[in-house]
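Slide 14.
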Amino acid sequence: MLGRLNHVALAVPDLAAAMAAYRDMLGARLSEPQALPEHGVTVVFVDVGNTKIELLEPLGDASPIAAFLEKNPSGGMHHVCYEVDDILAARDHLKQIGARVLGDGNPKIGAHGKPVLFLHPKDFFGTLVELEQA
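Slide 15: predicted structure.
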């Protein structure tokens, strides 16, 4: 079921500062910032060749990233994203074996324009897992 690692997401308190650090200190190639109101975030992707790093900044006070940053003011790793061939089959299988899908269980469209789901971190040893349709 599990495909390649699509990205590792880092919550950041200041997207412009994070972009500058990755660009100026590490020489990274960055995407343009993209607001995703349905997810409550603004994202930028850092291309590292074999995968991506996603920088997440809250888009409004109701953002789940705002709550994460209240607990982790300097930012930190928020989630890992794995690709799956069939997100609905993956969801159904995971639910059948007891994994908890967050939200209403229906995929939303993510930053790459593909369906995504999030899995409860307590089911994956403290790591929030995102699944993205390949």
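Speaker note: The chain has three helices and nine strands.
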